[in-house]
């Protein structure tokens, strides 16, 4: 492959990438307008910062367990509030993101049809307590986020209740993003206690905080797009290849030049004389 060939291939790759970029942006635009129509611009902006990489399952070994347990994963595109939490400057951004995804995963696993509609009660309040030996903190969150944990208790929804689809992109969680600051450092020893408080009854669930962090880690910052890194990478590879080729050709010539004097040095009997 000579220099001209290299240039032609590189130009071809650039073209492919530009086409790919066009397709990508076209798609992105369609998505953006759809989101804009639904609930304003700010929600979809967070999609640009983060991408969801659902693993097949999450294997987690709790503090006092001997082996890992398998936890269900939500495999569809997460609703906007998941990204809103991750992108928020909240101290609890990881716990809130993780709890949302854990609940969605559980709901999908238990039977989506029955679990994705959550009945909101006017008097209910939910909070999460982070508990460690000498450490305690608590914050409130919307109860639909633990829909898969809450026992319905056979109560018929009254006319005051309202249904929320936990996968809806129109849920606004802004009122629950309060405690801004550096993220809470999640450790293996922390226990996250989920409270669902009604006026007459209280329900409690325990989850290792580190498990919620595992769920939160499946939402990753969006990397450099393919249409930028691919041509750069291929360009570098071709450049290195061409440089090597030139360098090796020069080396060969040098070697040929040096062959004669080197051979002359190797006089038989030179070694034998020692
Ligand atoms: C729910 O009840 C528990 C136990 O009484 C309490 O510690 C927690 O702060 C309550 N949460 C809310 C949001 O009222
Ligand atoms: C809801 O139910 C209450 C009684 O529990 C009744 O007084 C009220 O009119 C109802 N509201 C609507 C909108 O149906």
Automatic annotation (TrEMBL):
UniProt source species: Chrysodeixis includens
Keywords of the record: Membrane, Signal, Transmembrane, Transmembrane helix
Keyword Transmembrane helix included in the entry's annotation: yes
Transmembrane intervals: 226-244
Name the UniProt record assigns to this protein: Uncharacterized protein
Signal peptide: 1-22
């Amino acid at each position: 492959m000579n220099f001209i060939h290299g240039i032609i291939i590189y130009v071809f790759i650039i073209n492919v990438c530009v086409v790919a970029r066009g397709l990508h942006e076209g798609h992105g635009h369609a998505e953006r307008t759809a989101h804009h129509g639904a609930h304003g611009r700010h929600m979809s902006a967070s999609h640009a910062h983060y991408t969801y990489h659902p693993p097949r399952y999450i294997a987690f070994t709790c503090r006092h367990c001997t082996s890992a347990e398998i936890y269900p994963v939500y495999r569809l595109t997460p609703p906007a509030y998941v990204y809103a939490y991750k992108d928020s400057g909240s101290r609890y951004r990881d716990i809130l993101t993780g709890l949302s995804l854990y609940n969605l995963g559980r709901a999908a696993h238990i039977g989506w049809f029955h679990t994705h509609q959550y009945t909101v009660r006017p008097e209910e309040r939910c909070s999460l307590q982070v508990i460690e030996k000498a450490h305690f903190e608590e914050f409130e969150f919307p109860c639909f986020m633990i829909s898969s944990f809450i026992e319905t208790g056979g109560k018929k929804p009254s006319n005051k209740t309202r249904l929320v689809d936990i996968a809806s992109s129109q849920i606004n969680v802004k009122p629950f993003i309060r405690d801004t600051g550096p993220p809470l450092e999640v450790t293996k020893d922390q226990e996250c206690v989920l409270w669902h408080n009604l006026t007459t009854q209280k329900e409690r669930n325990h989850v290792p905080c580190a498990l919620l962090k595992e769920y939160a880690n499946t939402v990753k910052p969006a990397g450099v797009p393919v249409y930028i890194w691919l041509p750069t990478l291929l360009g570098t590879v071709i450049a290195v290849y061409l440089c090597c080729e030139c360098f090796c050709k020069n080396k060969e010539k040098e070697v040929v030049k040096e062959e004669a004097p080197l051979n002359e040095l190797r006089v038989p009997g030179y070694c034998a004389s020692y």
